[in-house]
Amino acid sequence: MTDRLIIFDTTLRDGEQAPGIALTPDEKVAIAHQLAKLKVDVLEAGFAASSPGDFEAVSRIAAGVEGPVIASLARAHPDDIDQAYDALKAAERFRIHVFMSTSQVHMEKMLRMTPEEVLKASVEGVKRARRYTDDVEFSPQDATRTDHDFLIEVCRAAVEAGATTINIPDTVGYATPADFVELLERVYAEVRGDRDDVIVSVHCHNDLGLAVANSLSAIRAGARQIEGAINGIGERAGNTSIEEVVMAVKTRQDVFEVEVGTDTTQLFETSRLVSRLTGYPVQYNKAVVGRNAFAHESGIHQHGVLRARETYEIMDAAAVGQRPAQIVLGKHSGRAGFADALTKMGIVLEDEAFARAFEKFKRLADRKVNIGEAEIRAIVEEESVVVEGPVSMVGLHVSGGNDVTPQAVVKLDVGGTVREFSGTGDGMVHAAFAAIRQAFPFEARLVDYRVVPVTSGADAMAEINVVIRVGDDTYAGRSVNTDVVEGSAEAFVEALNKVEK
Questions:
Q1: CATH topology of 3-278 equal to that of 391-500?
Q2: What is the pLDDT of residue 479?
Q3: pLDDT mean over 35-62
Q4: 207 vs 113: CA distance, rounded Å
Q5: Residues 484/451, Cβ–Cβ less than 8 Å
Q6: Rounded to an integer, what distance in angstroms lies between the CA atom of residue 72 and that of residue 74?
Q7: Under DSSP, is residue 325 helix (H, G, I), strand (E, B) or coil?
Q8: Which of 35, 72, 187, 417 lies deepest, with the highest CB count within 10 Å?
Q9: Which residues pair with 100 in a beta bridge?
Q10: Exposed (0-12), middle (13-18) or buried (19+): which is 124, by Cβ within 10 Å?
Q11: DSSP notation for 71-90
Q12: Is 433 exposed, middle or buried (0-12, 13-18, 19+ CB in 10 A)?
């Protein structure tokens, strides 16, 4: 009989902790709904005790997202666990995920606790969580660098205290498949044993590029829950890529002999949404969801695929939501042609969102000879999510270069009145930002700025992402444009409008 593999998604918790990612509660809720469409089994919505924003996001997801078990991380501390419950209690099904560091370096250098104190705190944390739910997960942080005998002792104690999932985190990506299997086999035999009510889980990081390999190896050793994030995002080099594990299991059933309940046709759309809202681009050659994952340029490959897809593809693009066919539009295309292209791509827009996207398309078409699927997706993603705010772009003029200080004159609609602002800077983007800042009554500091090409060529379309900091909070803005300066200004205005909102 084939076992069921539980997919535990931590995009909104561990993934969101990656440097430069600043999701608002609204954005986290949007991703959570898409993860529910993907049919992940467990959705870790955040770390409720870490900030008011995370508490709000976890609470809203618990109350409004149906399907997955909703989880919140909590340190083995009473206040953390109580706040996790308060945030989760509206969910139909929820899990409290308790963690405690167990490696010698963590206990000595970070916690400054003895092994006996760590063991006691772990047990008390699990017991407190069990007051609120019978679905409690325990993670001994930095498990792969923990003394194995002590790791087994802590995990056994956690199970006796009521933990139903024991998660073994490779917190710093230290393990290799062979030694990870050896450790997992011992955990499976000595902690789970014959208990059908205990699940062994793994949470692997990618510091050595082995997160997916270690996770897949763990399945062979008895793990029945895999934790990871969409696009593999996360701290440092990231987490296990959910999409890669799911498709490896689906494609190689002969090896892994486990089933997943994931709707794989939602993988690509989920990847795009996470990329768009986090500002983290997906590398072109990323497995499963990358732009080139099902593209063929070599003549030999093209010949083979045209004869039979299976010659060079082990997965069907449609099975993961990818559409390899390119759609090309130009400036002579009308609403009917644009609507037909959206239909073929499986995109449905409400009237107002369609009108905005079509207007953006026509402006772009005047600058580019041909517009393909990548540009259309970028347009739709930008125009279908509108950040309502008091300020909108009307016009922008920049000048300067060589020995002339760059200057920008920007026209902004501020609360219904068109006003003009000017500024100077080290470059044209800097000058535009200096002018725009004057329309907002607060100080904002730019902490991240990225320009990622959507297409190639002299008339390439770019995706511009900015992250600003106002006080202790960060806000992200995004734009797609063939003009990098104009797009940068639009993204900056969107981020500032989020502060106002």
A1: no
A2: 87
A3: 97
A4: 27
A5: yes
A6: 7
A7: coil
A8: 72
A9: 140
A10: middle
A11: EEEEESSHHHHHHHHHHHTT
A12: buried
Provide the token pair at 187: 């955990």
Q: State yes or no: pLDDT of 337 exceeds 90.
A: no
Judged against a pLDDT cut of 90, whether residue 449 lies above it is answered with yes
* Alpha carbons 480 and 460: distance in angstroms, whole number: 10
The CATH number that domain 3-278 falls under is 3.20.20.70
3-state secondary structure of 465: strand
Q: Is residue 31 within 8 Å of 23, Cβ to Cβ?
A: yes
Alpha-carbon torsion angle 186, 188, 194, 197, nearest 10: 150
- Which residue(s) pair with 407 in the sheet? 399, 424
Residue type, 28: K
3-state helix, strand, coil in the chain (%, to 5): 45, 25, 35
Count CB-CB contacts under 10 A for residue 486: 20
Closest among 231, 319, 212 to 273, alpha carbons compared: 231
Residue found by looking up tokens 């993860």 in the block: 35
DSSP code per residue over 398-451: EEEETTEEEEEEEEEEETTEEEEEEEE-SSHHHHHHHHHHTTSSS--EEEEEEE
Query: How confident is the model over 163-182, as pLDDT tens digits?
Result: 999 999 999 999 999 999 99
Residues 6+ apart with CB under 8 A from 399: 406, 407
Give the predicted TM-score (pTM) of the model.
0.77
Q: Where along the chain do its domains lie?
A: 3-278, 299-383, 391-500
Q: Which fold has domain 391-500?
A: Double Stranded RNA Binding Domain (3.30.160)
Query: Distance between CA 184 and CA 186 in Å, rounded?
Result: 5
**Vertex 481 angle, CA 480 and 487, to 5°:** 85
Q: What is the mean pLDDT of residues 334-340?
A: 76
Lowest mean pLDDT among 28-42, 298-312, 444-458: 298-312
pLDDT digits (tens, 9 = 90+) for 79-117: 999 999 999 999 999 999 999 999 999 999 999 999 999
Question: Rounded distance, CA 322 to CA 264, Å?
Answer: 10
For the segment 9-18, the average pLDDT, to the nearest whole number, is 96
